[in-house]
Amino acid sequence: MWQGRRVVLGVSGGIACYKSCILARRLVEAGARVDVVLTRAAAEFVRPLTFEALTGRPVLSSLWSPGGALAHVRLGQDADLIIVAPATANVIARAAQGLADDFLTAMLLASTAPVLLAPAMNDQMFAADATAANLEILKARGVHLVGPETGPLAEGPSDQPGRMSEPETILTHAARLIRPPSALAGKRVVVTAGPTRESIDPVRVITNRSSGRMGYAVAEAAFDRGADVLLISGPSALDAPPGVSLQRIESTAELEHAVREALPAADVLVMAAAPADFRPATEGSGKLARTSGPLSLDLEPTADILAATRDARKPGSVIVGFALETGDAVAKGAAKLERKALDLIVVNDALEPGAGFEVSTNRVTILGDGGDRVEVPLQAKRGVADTILDAVEGRLGR
After folding, report:
1. Are residues 341 and 258 in the same domain?
2. Can you give the residue range of the structural domain that contains 291?
3. CB distance 228 to 186 below 8 Å
4. Which of 254, 194, 266, 281 is nearest to 227 (CA)?
5. Which residue among 90, 122, 134, 208 is the active-site one?
6. CA–CA separation, 132 and 134 (whole Å)
7. Are residues 323 and 381 in the same domain?
8. What pTM was estimated for this model as a whole?
9. Rounded (10°) CA dihedral 367, 372, 375, 381
């Protein structure tokens, strides 16, 4: 994706400049040609030589360099993408007002490339009416934003936005701006992931081995394609992918409620979660003691979420189910596809090495309601996720 792309990284004067060094390195590693534009204030934090060593290219900072009278115009117009990180309150204000009094702001004014700003400043500066107004002006002109986030600032702890987003988060948002157009761009995609837990007593639960990796990979891939993604996740040790909204749930009943609430606005639902099929008929009010002797549980089935929420689906939406089976998995998956009125179902065998739960790879068969079938070989779950979304894109707008 990044190979051969021309990226301009504008760095303005804030302590978060150190993160910009990491971002420059990540872009180069991904294959981009990176030109760094350094403001005078930024050079007080990080010397130009640092960025030159990281990118292998000279750093630009002055409109008055010999032989560079039109460098700001050429650079801005040749770029595939401009990232300004950190974007200080000062640079944001000058860009909003159309000032062009240094190399960075002159280049921004002359460029037609997509622009991504990563604001970074004191939390009160970010909350100021002037900053909010300037950001609204820039957004109205098509400028994209990532962050800021909450967390420690140079002056101490803060629970308010102001901290620059991490380099990997910025890179994820940047990738959306240079990808080829996708049918998922601007669509609302809801993904479920992970297991559910059904309480036996206040201490013990019934659950399964799902790690959530498959659903998280689908959510990440959908965001990369430009979708607005809601990830509804059961208990998982995974962090939410950058840019994805995360809603945590515990039980199958909570998952059903969350899916029902999300469906009316969802263009796509990918039901990758592994909800518990059974729950205790009664939940103990206190911890059941081992000294009480053998324990017998009466179990009752939980709701079939895809069937129970069918009436909440948005007309024209694409609904994707998952079927983790043992023995004749494809036939069982085909039956579920029809029974639950799905557009697609992703089938895999829980006993196959390298597939299923608690591994980073998967091998699946994707079945469509029109009889189509795609065999996806064993590979990383992110690759499987992209193949699933390719099939989803082929059905949007049918």
Report:
1. yes
2. 188-393
3. yes
4. 266
5. 208
6. 5
7. yes
8. 0.83
9. -50
Q: How far is CA 221 from the centre of its chain?
A: 7
Q: How many domains does the chain have?
A: 2
H helix and E strand count, the chain: 13, 17
Q: Angle at which helices 89-96 and 103-110 pack, to 10 degrees? A: 40
Write out the two tokens for 335. Answer: 């039956």
- pLDDT (tens place) for every residue of the chain, 398 residues total: 788 889 999 999 988 999 999 999 999 998 899 999 999 999 888 999 999 999 999 998 877 665 555 666 777 778 889 999 999 999 999 999 999 888 899 999 988 899 999 999 988 899 999 999 999 999 999 999 998 988 777 777 778 888 899 999 999 899 888 888 889 988 999 999 999 998 888 888 888 888 889 999 999 999 999 999 999 999 988 888 988 999 999 999 999 999 999 999 999 999 999 898 888 878 777 877 776 777 788 888 898 999 899 999 999 999 999 988 777 888 888 888 989 899 999 998 877 777 777 788 888 899 998 888 999 898 899 999 999 999 999 888 66
The verdict on 216 and 360 lying in the same domain is yes
Domain-located, residue 273: yes
Residue 1 resides in a domain? no
Active site residue 90: no
